[in-house]
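New to this. Help decode both lines:
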Amino acid sequence: MERVEKLIAYLAPDLELPQAKEEQEWVLRALMNIWEPKAMPQEFWELQDAYLQEKLAQGQLTRLSDLQEIAPQIYLWQGDITTLQVDAIVNAANSQLLGCFVPLHRCIDNAIHSQAGLKLRLACQKIIAEQGQLEATGQAKLTEGYNLPAPYVIHTVGPIIQDQVTAEDEKLLASSYQHGLELAVKQGLSSIAFCCISTGEFRFPNQLAAEIAIKTVRAFVKEHPQLKVVFNVFKDNDLAIYQELLAIPS
């Protein structure tokens, strides 16, 4: 508990702490979510990494070898992507690439940044600063995974659906998958896990999104036999959709 208290003191020195350990951990995560990128003392980074690695060790990791290949080079897995030990996981990012600033939000962007730690936000800030503009929809960028079990994170901005899905929206979603796959191959990775990009907060219909994802991935892996792809789903609805499209008995 002392480690958590020290981390909170760095992020909000005047904050009155709750007594319960679980409440303190929620406070810490919320403070990390709203943190504005800046330089921090080395002790903070050491404390943060030790804390997040301890949290990771307390959970159960899933390795690619634990999964069953359900089509050539393709896997389907339901669970928390931050516990998946593959070469890279894909984050459904926003155009700032900085992660979710809503405290304790249940989106995948928040989950990934919370487990990776604040160096991920710094790395993403550097990418945006160097390119001088927000990340374009359908593109992808690669960073380290820091305190995630996956050594890399590929960040992609999928299309946001305002009313109805357009042909351009479909093209941009396919582009997010394509650019993620290309980045993985360029980096020499052998496995990548995709979340359900643009569904949920970005309102892309789940069925159509899955159809586009599977079509894009199937075409790519035919030309790149070294790459294995995991479709990671969290909700039962998405699991059922992917099972049907991949012809897997439920």
User: Anything to note?
Assistant: The longest strand covers residues 228-233. Residues 193 and 208 are 19 Å apart (CA to CA). The beta strands are 62-63, 69-71, 74-78, 84-85, 88-92, 140-144, 152-156, 191-194, 228-233. The radius of gyration is 18 Å.
